[in-house]
Amino acid sequence: MSGFQVICWICSSICREYGAVSDRHKAQSIASLPTATMYQVIRGFILTDSRCWDPESQRSYQDLFDKLDTNKDGKVDVAELRAGLTAMGISFRKGAAQKIVSSGDKNKDGGLDFNEFNKYLKEHEKRLRLTFKSLDKNNDGRIDASEIKQSLEELGMDITQEEAQTILQSMDIDGTMMVDWNEWRDHFLFNPAHNLNEIVRYWKHSTVLDIGESIAIPDEFTEEEKTSGGWWKQLAAGAMAGAVSRTGTAPLDRVKVFMQVHSSKSNRITLLGGFKQMIKEGGVASLWRGNGINVLKIAPETAIKFMAYEQYKKLLTPEGEKVQTYQRFMAGSLAGATAQSSIYPMEVMKTRLTLGKTGQYNGMFDCAKKILRKEGIKAFYKGYTPNMIGIIPYAGIDLAVYESLKNAWLSRYAKDTANPGILVLLGCGTISSTCGQLASYPLALLRTRMQAQATLDASDKSTMSGLVKGILANEGFFGLYRGILPNFMKVIPAVSISYVVYEYMKTGLGISK
């Protein structure tokens, strides 16, 4: 299965996930019916005459509400919604019923009365209508395979015409190889995801998973997100997630830098020993030394990377043509290099502050003044070359491993649903980021040592090639991986913290309900 066939799986599984017939009082063979037949059963079973919100459909939803309200208290709570729709033939994935009730429960009484129930479905239909119109490129009231292919390409998902036809068939009830509004609406009616971008985002490799290294390929935003302002909310949510994540894992980051610079065969520093030295020298608070500027650089770096990424895509793509995968990778790598170049002096200051002793610097501005006065402007770009070289292996391996893990999961487990769940997504992101770090770690170590040269003995100061030769001669190959243990230890908590904070920030900013 190709990386982009996930869209086919998502679209074809939505109905099974939200509309698969499961009533055991019906013939057991219904589960084996062709997809179109199953849709017809669901239609007749639940969505009878529910068209375009005319009085007849209003009556239909009143009937549905009455069936769901099993205790006849005038409200449908999460348990009733889940049990009622499952009993009538619609199974929900975990959390879907809660999401629907939370979205429609305006008075926060834990349930939906009929007005709230009806209003939620109306608003949901409006959003589905907008998505349908955005897909219907020629405005003929129907969606064909070429329109699906074009729309997914605009979202950054390259698929073949055959794959687009397979997606279309999963929604095409009458066999015309076109999907009209009613077919589209019935297919997604009880799916809390209300636009194609949300569905695609199941498997988009989001940069929200902040592990302290901001050199991954930037996130892709749709034209709708760019015009509506949704992009900056996602960037703001990601920045806040990164800030909390980096603060939470700052002690591990500091001991990593400490081991990268000072640990050697003759001066072995263990993880526990490094913590003891730092606490003895500056107290517990010293474990967060350098974290302030590490958090502060997130905002400018994220903004510069996003703007540069959009410009590089335009430069690399011939006018009138779609952006190809390799062009996205090139644009992302160049955007990462541009952002890193812009904020690199802050990287040097972060390293100096992290390694500094108590009282050596009175904040980042004092650090900047002392570096400028003693070493000149060039000192702010020490270690720049290995840092730039490290972008390609990190971003490339991160992306390649993620795609491989995604395809492996889809081919083996995506039988009933293409939604992998939080644990699988976090697992794939964690493993791919770790692999990217593993490949680029020697370059990161060289960068850190070169940034810290003013704090080292004169004999330790060298060029990039000189440092490599010295490390290999004195410490062997594994000397290039000094400090990798705390680096790996911080990946899982960093990913977990950033994901949780990102989800809360999205809700707070109104990105997701």
TrEMBL record:
Keywords attached to this entry: Antiport, Calcium, Membrane, Metal-binding, Mitochondrion, Mitochondrion inner membrane, Repeat, Transmembrane, Transmembrane helix, Transport
Major subcellular location class: mitochondrion
Solcar repeats: 229-315, 323-408, 420-508
Membrane topology of the entry: Multi-pass membrane protein
Reaction(s) catalysed (UniProt annotation): dADP(in) + ADP(out) = dADP(out) + ADP(in); 3'-AMP(out) + phosphate(in) = 3'-AMP(in) + phosphate(out); AMP(out) + phosphate(in) = AMP(in) + phosphate(out); Mg(2+)(in) + ADP(out) + ATP(in) + H(+)(out) = Mg(2+)(out) + ADP(in) + ATP(out) + H(+)(in)
Domain EF-hand: 56-91, 123-158, 159-194
Keyword Repeat: yes
Localization: Mitochondrion inner membrane
Domain of life, per lineage: Eukaryota
GO cellular component, one term: mitochondrial inner membrane
GO terms assigned for molecular function: antiporter activity; calcium ion binding
Family membership: Belongs to the mitochondrial carrier (TC 2.A.29) family.
Subunit note: Monomer.
This protein's name: EF-hand domain-containing protein
